[in-house]
Amino acid sequence: MKGRESGMPDEAYWDSFFQPEGILDRLLVTQGGCYNLVEFGCGYGTFSLPAAKRTRGTVTALDIEPVMVELVAERAKADGLLNVRTELRDFVEHGTGVPDCSQGHAMVFNLLHIENPLALLREAFRTLRPGAILSVIHWRSDIETPRGPPLDIRPRPEQCASWLSETGFDSVVHVDLAASAPYHFGLLAQRPMA
Q1: Is the dihedral of CA 123, 117, 94, 83 positive or negative?
Q2: pTM above 0.85, yes or no
Q3: Helix crossing, 117-127 with 157-167: angle to 10°?
Q4: How far apart are alpha carbons 62 and 142 in whole angstroms?
């Protein structure tokens, strides 16, 4: 099931909103350089592909759009990134398909305006091993932005933090992304060790 207001714009326009490396510098906790990572909604591979260069583990890039999955697979191959696994998957309806507690990091970017964000966060929690990190970015709702879902369905950082806590995450931290993504806010949350 495709979430409400979840279409992708032209790639050049999309790329104008982010500096992926700067965002990953702030949000991707490398944990020694060898961990599995799952991205919910990989789109053009904006974050999946640079993340794959930062880990020796497998990066599972999921998307509901066949064109996006094929594009990311082609780009990973062209870049010699043998640790990227792409999959056409409706993770909202059917989950990620990765085993319980198998991921060291999960990325949920620009998705928490969907109809049931708690279900998505529960799935992210399930995939993460104890102590692993979830990173979240979303369009800000306190300013007008050139893109993004309608303001009235955008979650605020405080709402996302509350959802994360409700889902079982702890150590929720707000991350300043202004230098790399001025239209977005960022959060990091950890699956508890026990």
Answers
A1: negative
A2: yes
A3: 50
A4: 29
